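Hi L.,

You mentioned the student needs an example of a multi-chain input paired with its predicted structure. This one should do, with 676 residues in total across all chains.
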Amino acid sequence: MKFWVTLENRDAEVEFQTHGDQVWLEFDGRRLQADFHRLPDGEVYSLIVNGRSHEVRVSPMTDRLEVTLRGSTFPVEVRNPLERILQSTTRAQTATRGETIAAPMPGLVVAVRVKAGDTVTAGQAVAVVEAMKMQNELTARHDGVVSDVLVAPGQSVSAGQPLFRLKPSPT
Amino acid sequence: MARIRRVLIANRGEIAVRVLRTLRELDIASIAVYSEPDRAALHVLLADEAYPIGPGPAAESYLNQTKILEVAREARADAIHPGYGFFAENAGFARACAEAGIVFIGPRPETIATLGDKLAAREVARAAGVPLVPGTPGPVASLDLARDAAKALGYPLMLKAAAGGGGKGLRIVRDDAELQTAWSLTRGEARSAFGDDQVYLERAIERPRHVEAQILADASGRVAFLGERECSVQRRHQKLLEETPSPGFTPDQRGASRTPRAASPPTSATSTPEPSSSSSTRTAAFYFLEVNTRLQVEHPVTEMVTRLDLVAEQIRIAEGDSLSFDAPPTPNGWSMEARVIAEDPLSGFIPSTGRIERLRLPSGPGVRNDAGIYRGYEIPVYYDSLLSKLVVWAPDRERARRRLARALDEFVLEGVHNNLAFHRWLVTHPEFAAGHLSTKFLDDHFKPTSLAPSADALDVAVVAAALHAREERSRVTLPVPPNGRAERSAWRWADRRRAGGGARR
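Structure written out for the whole complex:
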């Protein structure tokens, strides 16, 4: 499993590997062993990285996490690779006004939430795609009207395959 | 004088808790008072009795003399301990206590009045042979006279309110133009803060150290000197860290600062006035600065090295007893105090309020916490932002410094901005470790980037966030139902707000 982590304008790709009970992270060209233990305090964890012990608090906020370490709080954004691809895809589409919502990775469409002619608002879910045994909601990045629905539930899709086309909302 | 059995504490926060602890140990009933927002404050929880005195603003509660005296009478208090701030140096309040037949635990009203007036205090010091910073002998009546005095004294100068204190009503002026600007500002400040706009001029010392001497005096006129306190680390004339003894204070200087004090007139010999002297690091000269006729915020460092309980001594003195010792105890070892304040060092130290979400106080050998907070406590907006005082003792300065650094590392305080990271920076700074202190320490050494997190800390934050995300995914991802229609999504795990946290288990 991989995550993109953004902290103070620095992007890092963190990849997880599990060996038995042990969790390894690959990050910035380093391989670290980590043990993450939630404390009764709720949002607080004991984190042991390569034997070094840290006490951290991770608080979910609306659009990011806040990590508190020795009294300093860092805003951190974590995205999975699908989200990252999706973001770049939608960014590319924004330029042409209108939007194509594509499958971020190979998967199975398990639900289609909109039909042609529907008006959608930014952030609205349009489909659910199952990938890597997890279900992921695909959302519209912009307001618009669904012009084409290119998939149906139960259909397998490949990465980058267009699923929906949206027109800009009439103003 | 009769024994004191019931004491009303006319204060709040950590100092009310501090006083209360001694009362408990002496088997004296403790009576707390509280404003509306302080209903759940620690001093109320710990006190034997507690009575409301009004709304949040201090002027309507902790500074409401009529109400406090009324509560004191109704609660049958024998005595009132004022703590520091509020009524601690208010001669009128001390007088009103006496008239109400209640013992004021502190100096006589006339002592408070004399020493609280900076100019009168200078006169007392001059008469006692204590060196004074060169300045005008009395208030300066006009800007023209101030200019003449400035010419004679030479810039830079301090323009000070005669009734000033706590860092209010003073300004440094470097030339005639600055004097002109400061003249009306300082007088205006003095008028609104102290109701007295008299000002005087004093030569500014460029890199002074702020050193205080703790004295205790009983009703018989016996005065004890309990060592000095180094209080130089300040911002905006407010102290951040204090220690005793003072590094770089030689035994000779200690002797010299003590001699004139022993000759102080009987007016100051009623309770616990604390002369502060200011001495320059370069010339090692010391000058009289002021006398604070009260228990100081930083009194615990003196307690740590003398093994005395200064509040207990104050109560003895108030009962008319002599001091608890024949000769003042020889100070033993070294003590430091870090003031833990709800403020943001990265935004100009502006005060912060909020709820204490997490709190774990350090402990272990030689560590004392004088805290006025607990987990879940909401810090009211109306009062001082001092949350807690972290005090350590060790046999020598270096060990005390390391112990303080260790205790600061243990300290967990979340929910409000605070200056713990600042203190960690301070006590590990080479100049601090070397004892090279002055009231300009922050100007000389502190930059907001001083508190920048290390690369290691950033790495740990990245790893923690990623691990948290991984945990969240494994927790919220639902097994795919047979109909293929899952309503909840792991996709948007980061969008779930704190309020939804309950669903995580």
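You could point out the following to them. The CA atoms of residues 76 and 169 of chain A lie 33 Å apart. The helical segments of chain A are 81-94.

Best wishes,
N.
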